[in-house]
Each structure stands twice: as C-alpha cells, then as structure tokens.
From TrEMBL:
<dbReference type="Pfam" id="PF17389">
    <property type="entry name" value="Bac_rhamnosid6H"/>
</dbReference>
<dbReference type="InterPro" id="IPR012341">
    <property type="entry name" value="6hp_glycosidase-like_sf"/>
</dbReference>
<dbReference type="InterPro" id="IPR049164">
    <property type="entry name" value="Glyco_hydro_78_N"/>
</dbReference>
<dbReference type="InterPro" id="IPR008928">
    <property type="entry name" value="6-hairpin_glycosidase_sf"/>
</dbReference>
<dbReference type="GO" id="GO:0005975">
    <property type="term" value="P:carbohydrate metabolic process"/>
</dbReference>
<dbReference type="InterPro" id="IPR035398">
    <property type="entry name" value="Bac_rhamnosid_C"/>
</dbReference>
<feature type="domain" description="Alpha-L-rhamnosidase six-hairpin glycosidase">
    <location>
        <begin position="199"/>
        <end position="389"/>
    </location>
</feature>
<dbReference type="Pfam" id="PF21104">
    <property type="entry name" value="Glyco_hydro_78_N"/>
</dbReference>
<feature type="domain" description="Glycosyl hydrolase family 78 alpha-rhamnosidase N-terminal">
    <location>
        <begin position="93"/>
        <end position="183"/>
    </location>
</feature>
<dbReference type="Pfam" id="PF17390">
    <property type="entry name" value="Bac_rhamnosid_C"/>
</dbReference>
<dbReference type="InterPro" id="IPR035396">
    <property type="entry name" value="Bac_rhamnosid6H"/>
</dbReference>
<feature type="domain" description="Alpha-L-rhamnosidase C-terminal">
    <location>
        <begin position="526"/>
        <end position="587"/>
    </location>
</feature>
<keyword id="KW-0732">Signal</keyword>
<feature type="signal peptide">
    <location>
        <begin position="1"/>
        <end position="19"/>
    </location>
</feature>
<protein>
    <submittedName>
        <fullName>Alpha-L-rhamnosidase</fullName>
    </submittedName>
</protein>
Length: 587
C-alpha cells in the first residue's frame, strides 16, 4: 500500500508540474503562430458636426458633447451625453467630420439604455460628406466593395463597440428603430497607421507646393497598412504598378520600410511564371523597375539576391516578347497603362514598347549586379531591337511620357505632347511619369506649374489626400468634398468618375497619386541617388520661379539636409549637410 501511495504521489506531482507548464507551452506555441501587427491605433474625436436631421430640436440633445476628448470608457456618471431619440416626430441622424482622411473605424461608447437592451444604429463612412450621406444603390456608385462602409449594428448597454475598417473622413450615425433612445458618450475615430517618422521633408517659397508634397506623403502613409495598398477604402490590394509612385514616395519620405519588400514578395509568391502580376503584362515590369529603384536606395544586396531566380526567368520571358520588326508582342494578360488611356490601343502599344525598353534596361543593370552577364546580354540585345521601332503616341500623354523616358522619342518631342492643353488629359497615376518626362526635357518650370494646376485644385476642393483620378474638366461649378452639396452645384465625388471608379466608388485616398512628392524632392530639392545605398548622391536643384527650397532626404546612413537660396543675380547658393559615408556631388 505504501508503495502504491508513493507511486500515486509521484504521478500526481508530475501531473501538477505538467499542468503548471501547460499555459507557458501553449502561449509559446500560440505566440509563434500569431501574426503581429505593424500598425498602431489612436482615437480621435470629431472636430465638428456637419449635419443634423431636420427633427434635431426634439430628437437630438447635446450633440456637441461628442466633440469633447473621450476616454473610451463607459461610466455611471450620466454626464456629457449626446441623446438621440426616435419617435413620431422623426428618426434622428448626425454627420461627424473628423477633419482629415483617416484609415480605421469608429468607436462608440454608450450609457444605459431602456431595459438594458441593445440599440440599433446605422453607420455610414464617407471619404466625402456626400458619400457619408449616400445609400448603396445604382445611382451614384456607393458601395461596400473591399471595405464595409454602410452597415447596421447593435450597440450594448453601458459598453463599447468598435466597428469598421476603411478609409473615411466623415461618419453618419442614425437610429434605426422607432421609439428608440441612444445615450451616446463618445463617437471616436479609430486611426490605424504605421507610427513612423517623416524623415524626408520639403519646404519652399510656395506654400501650395509645400502642402502638395506633404499631402502626397500622407496619402501613401495611410496606405502603408499590413501591406502596401493602393487605396484605403477601395483597392485595398497590392497592385504592383500602382506601387511604383508609392515606393518612390516612401524612399523620399520614410526611407527603407519593410512594407515594400513584404508587398513585392507577396506579388511574386502569388504569381508563378509565366503569369503576370495582377493579370497585366505591364505590372510585372513595374515589379522589376521597383526592384532596381529599391536596391539603389537601400543597397540591400541580400534582398536583391533573394529575387534572382524569379527575376532572371521573368527577364528571359520579357526579352523573348519582341518580334522580327522590333515590336513588342506582349500577350498572355491584360494590356494596360492606366484607366484614362485604356481605350487608346495604339497608345497602349506605344507605352508598352517604351516600358519594355525601360524594364530590360533596368534588368540588365540588375543582372550585372547579380553576376549574370548572359541574361544582361539578352536584355541589351532585345532593347537594341526595340529601339528600331518607335510607335506613335497617338496623342496620348501617358504614351508620350513613357516614350520620352525610355529614350525612344526625343525628350523635347515628348514634352511637346505633354505641354499641349496644359494639364488637360493628365491622370493621377501617370501624372508622375508626365512630370518625370518634363524634367528629362529640362522643363522643370513646366513640371512645377503642372503640379500646381493639377494636384492643387484637389486641395482647393477640400482634399486632405490625393484621389484615384482627377480631371480639370470636373472643376466648373464643383462642390467641395467637406460640405453638403449646395443647390445648383455639381457633386465632385458623386457625379464624376469613370471605368471602375464611378461616383462614390471613386477612391479619394489613392497612393498612386503621390507623384509630386518624390518629383519635388528629386528635381526641386535636387536629390538624385547615384550609387546603391545612397552612398553617392548628386544635388542638382531646379528652383524655377521659387526663391528658395530646403528639406531633408533619408538614406540608410542617416538624413541629408539641403538648402538652396536664389541670390540677387539668379544664381543658387546651396548648403548640404550629409552623414558620414554619403558622398555628395553638388551641381
């Protein structure tokens, strides 16, 4: 018996020891399986109440209490409550303005409700005031695509609910049921973003350009979520072509960031060859161009070497897509530059011809770095054949920009097409390449003016981020996005748009529209990376009609500080302060 008790005692002791260790083992296993987030959350109170339902005098009390800074905690004090009451006089609603475009959702903190029962409310998010006031229908394109922005939810008694994951500035809250009452303590935006510093900066004598630079930076910042998206309301996907302006902006503003290689790798891993990324022949070309540009900025050879196997096969695939006449014969996927040019087939051919030259040139550079001279030679030979055939741009500014950048068309001839009609027929995505082509032609003042005249009007209309598309033909009699549309005015959000972005489906925070930010850094501030890892940087400012420009540029070795001041004789005095290891060439 004593021996049996001893055995049982030892067994029990072992079981207890194992039981004590189980939570640690479980937590370690779960921790290894868990995916950590690279974003943070902040809670922001609205800055104004833009609209109340017509019955607000009898059905809405103390709405202004929602503007106070909250704590996120329900309590029993009964103080500072906004009360919404539905009855035979109406069902109340409020429209809240959070002051600027945000990514995230809404936190609602409630007080006691009748009988302790949940209270149903309808929540509508909007990038414009009119979108938040819209219904999902077939009239103006309001949608729940990619992100839920119009929904009915139940709020708890003395509790808190967090809802939504989208891009928005405005939120409308309505009671749903008759004879219902909601005591609302707080309605705060949940702002989800990467908490990273703006290492790059830009300031000049034109405050509009300063605001445009920062708006482009902020637009991309919002789209740096789990992956690098193109839009925070719609197009919450990794679109590789759309990434090129975004990665250029990231390099100029934030420096190296893991969201870029993470997104590039995702596109690679879900696109087995001979397929093309996002189903478009041009988008795998953009992947190669980004790889070249990202390597030049970061100098990360180890990361580049990880791409070698896929990159070499992709380059061989592209090099074979040239016919006997030196013409691109890209097929197997969608032939696409951007939406406004999508019906101009000759322009698409011209643009793809130019893109293939740019891609294979970049690929040749990368192959030499990766010690693959054979593939580099294939790329160079294909480029030589492509240069014997120069398609007509067919009056397309998109095609002209690429033809000029590729060298197929003399830069000045390309710029003549780009300058016709000012910024008419610009687009927010390819506007970046139009600016780059103007710079290649030496038309820096034309680039500065185009930025003012194309991106500036979006800010005049209340934008705090840049849009998926914009057309200066929309401007006459257009309303601002931060007001309810007055009688007789056109709704700039709901009434315009085309292709996949009609009406309220149109994204008002699209990273591909950020081109002015890297352009101003490269051509006005004058920063050009000349060696991998920014170890050699050329500073060549082009102030145009500006009296000064100053700013900073992030490198892997530290931040470069730059200041240019135009002297009385028109010459520019430049001061540069660079970290150790960065060689600066001032032109």
């Amino acid at each position: 018996m004593k021996k049996l008790l001893s055995v049982l005692s030892l067994a029990l002791a072992g079981f207890i020891t194992q039981a004590q260790q189980l939570p640690q083992v479980f937590d370690a296993k779960r921790s290894a399986e868990a995916q950590s987030t690279e974003t943070v959350r902040k809670y922001l109170s609205p800055v104004r109440i833009l609209w109340k339902s017509t019955d607000e005098k009898t059905n809405i009390l103390n709405a202004e209490k929602l503007l106070k800074q909250g704590t996120g905690q329900a309590d029993l004090s009964g103080n500072d409550l906004c009360i919404l009451q539905s009855n035979d006089k109406g069902i109340p609603g409020l429209l809240l303005d959070f002051g600027k475009e945000l990514h995230g959702g809404l936190q609602l903190v409630t007080d006691q409700s009748r009988g302790g029962k949940p209270v149903r409310v309808r929540i509508r998010f909007g990038e414009s005031a009119s979108e938040a006031m819209s219904n999902i229908d077939t009239i103006k394109g309001a949608t729940n695509d990619h992100a839920m922005r119009d929904m009915i939810v139940s709020l708890p008694w003395l509790g808190k609910l967090e809802i939504g994951n989208t891009g928005f500035r405005f939120v409308r809250i309505d009671l749903v049921d008759y004879n219902s009452q909601l005591k609302l303590k707080e309605a705060r935006a949940i702002f989800i973003y990467r908490d990273i510093p703006y290492l790059g900066s830009f300031k000049c004598s034109d405050t509009l350009l300063n605001k445009i630079w920062l708006t482009g930076a902020y637009t991309v910042h919002l789209n740096m979520q789990d992956y690098l998206w193109d839009g925070i309301k719609r197009d919450r996907l990794v679109w590789v072509g759309d990434m090129h302006p975004e990665t250029s902006t990231i390099a100029a503003v934030f420096g190296s960031n893991p969201v870029v290689p993470k997104s590039l790798d995702l596109a690679r891993d879900i696109t087995p060859l001979p397929g093309y990324m996002n189903g478009m022949v041009s988008y795998s070309m953009w992947w190669i161009l980004i790889q070249r540009d990202w390597y030049m900025h970061t100098g990360d050879l180890k990361y580049l070497q990880q791409q070698k196997n896929y990159l070499i096969k992709l380059l061989n695939q592209y090099a074979a897509q040239v016919d006997a006449n030196g013409s691109e014969k890209l097929d197997g996927a969608g032939r696409f530059l951007d939406w406004p040019s999508s019906e101009n087939q000759p322009a698409i051919h011209a643009g793809l011809q130019a893109m293939l030259v740019m891609t294979l040139n970049a690929g040749s550079e990368l192959c030499k770095i990766l010690n693959d001279p054979a593939t580099a030679q294939k790329c160079d030979a294909a480029v030589a054949r492509l240069k014997t055939n120069v398609p007509d741009a067919n009056n397309s500014k998109q095609a002209a920009a690429l033809l000029g950048l590729s060298g197929l068309l003399p830069a000045q001839k390309a710029n003549n097409i780009l300058s016709a009609g000012g910024v008419h027929n610009y687009s927010t995505f390819f506007g970046y390449y139009m600016l780059l082509a103007k710079a290649k032609a030496g038309d820096y003042q034309g680039g500065i003016d185009a930025i003012r005249n194309f991106w500036g009007p979006m800010l005049d209309l209340g934008a705090t981020t840049f849009w998926e598309d914009f057309n200066v033909d929309w401007l006459p009699n257009a309303s601002r996005i931060d007001e309810l549309v007055p009688n007789g005015k056109k709704d700039i959000h709901g009434d315009y748009g085309a292709y996949c972005y009609k009406g309220f489906r149109h994204s008002l925070s699209h990273g591909w529209a950020s081109g002015p930010t890297p352009w101003l850094t490269e051509y006005v501030l004058g920063v050009k990376v000349m060696a991998p890892g920014c170890k050699v940087i050329k500073i060549e400012p082009h102030l145009g009609d500006l009296s000064f420009a100053e700013g900073t540029y992030p490198t892997p070795l530290g931040v470069v500080k730059i200041k240019h001041v135009k002297q009385a004789d028109g010459k520019v005095k430049t001061i540069v302060n660079a970290p150790a290891g960065v060689k600066v060439i001032v032109v």
